[in-house]
Each structure stands twice: as structure tokens, then as C-alpha cells.
């Protein structure tokens, strides 16, 4: 961080700087650098009291259609999240809810935010109390939907026949070796990727097709 700050004046305005040790992302602005908050998105209703959060938060939103294991790699998945979020006016940094060969799912949120920022859906309803809660308990709040970027309830919409989400991870959020559809580039029944039912703290293998 100290090196990045010292050299920031030599970077053109608009440059992005990623610090691996802290998994922090910074933007070069006119008067220095500014940290970028990361929003996380899924690559994939009962009645009850819903907790709406009007505080710093991380959004968990599904893509507008279910995906096979062929997403043009982690960058392709991130780009789909980015373009669909931009289409509805959302701002921020957009990352797919995926592990890959060089990325652990848990690490895509910076360490300082993992136990303090709630995870919310498109309507700011709390899905998980924190990022860490996803990996410690793994169950969403009862009665809270997951929405796609175009506003559909994934759990109740027939466009998603399988109510599961890709992640390629162990239960602790670490990459699951050889279980991410050839780094999310291949749709083939000969390959599998780690996934979880949306309403259960379970891990399972899905065919990449």
C-alpha cells in the first residue's frame, strides 16, 4: 500500500490498482487514490419478516439467465456481471461468485469487510449477516428472495429449472481443485463443477454442460 501511495502521482487518472495481500482495489483519482467497494454477484417465496438494510453492504444478484460451465473464464463471468449491473444503473466493482485456479471465492471480498458488511439482494433485503456467514453457516435468511439483475425471483421463476449456483469452492470458500469446469471455460458432461442448492448449506457436483 505504501508503495502504491508513493507512486500514485505517476499513475494516470482512472487507473486501477489491486493489492494482492489485502485483496483491495483502488482507483487513481485527481487528488490521490480512492478505495473501490466490491459488489458480488451470483452466476446462477415464502412469506416472512424481511430485514431491509440501508447501510454499507454487498449485493448478491443473479445473472439474467442460468449459465453452463462455459463462461469464457473468470473474466468472462465478471464481465457478464459488470454489463448486466451497468444496464440497470448499478455502480461499483462487480465480481462473479466463483473460485478459479488462481482465485478463492472467500478472498474476493477484502478481509476487513468480511465480518461487518451484510450481504443483501437487489432490493437491499438481508440474505446473510456477513460474507463470513456464507461460509460458516451457508444458509440464507428465510423468506428472502435472490433476484436477477432484471428483477426476477430466481427461486420461483421457471427460467431457472435448477435452483443451484456455481461456485467451484469448498465449504470454507477455498477453490476446489479440478471442480470448476476447466476454469469456467468448458460445457461438457465429462467435467463437473462445485455448486450448492440456493436454500441449503450443501455442496454438490454438477455437470458443466
UniProtKB/TrEMBL annotation:
Any coiled-coil regions, as ranges: none
Ranges for domain Collagenase NC10/endostatin: 58-201
Domain annotation Collagen type XV/XVIII trimerization: ranges: 1-38
Domain of life: Eukaryota
SUPFAM superfamilies from the UniProt entry: C-type lectin-like
Descriptive protein name: Collagenase NC10/endostatin domain-containing protein
Amino acid at each position: 500500500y505504501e508503495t502504491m501511495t508513493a507512486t500514485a502521482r505517476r499513475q494516470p487518472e482512472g487507473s486501477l490498482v489491486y493489492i494482492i495481500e489485502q485483496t483491495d482495489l483502488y482507483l487513481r483519482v485527481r487528488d490521490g487514490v480512492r478505495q473501490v467497494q466490491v459488489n458480488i454477484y451470483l452466476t446462477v417465496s415464502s412469506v416472512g419478516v424481511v430485514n431491509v438494510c440501508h447501510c454499507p453492504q454487498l449485493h448478491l444478484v443473479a445473472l439474467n439467465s442460468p449459465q453452463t460451465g462455459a463462461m469464457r473464464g473468470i473474466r468472462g463471468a465478471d464481465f457478464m456481471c459488470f454489463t448486466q449491473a451497468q444496464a440497470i444503473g448499478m455502480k461499483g466493482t462487480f465480481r462473479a461468485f466463483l473460485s478459479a485456479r488462481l482465485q478463492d471465492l472467500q478472498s474476493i471480498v477484502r478481509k476487513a469487510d468480511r465480518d461487518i458488511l451484510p450481504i443483501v439482494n437487489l432490493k437491499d433485503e438481508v440474505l446473510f449477516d456477513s460474507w463470513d456467514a456464507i461460509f460458516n453457516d451457508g444458509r440464507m435468511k428465510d423468506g428472502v428472495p435472490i433476484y436477477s439483475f432484471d428483477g426476477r425471483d430466481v427461486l420461483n421463476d421457471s427460467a431457472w429449472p435448477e435452483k443451484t449456483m456455481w461456485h467451484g469452492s469448498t465449504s470454507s470458500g477455498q477453490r476446489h481443485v479440478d471442480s470448476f469446469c476447466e476454469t469456467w471455460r468448458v460445457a461438457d458432461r465429462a467435467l463437473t463443477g462445485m455448486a450448492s442448492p440456493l436454500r441449503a448449506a450443501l455442496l454438490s457436483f454438477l455437470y458443466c454442460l
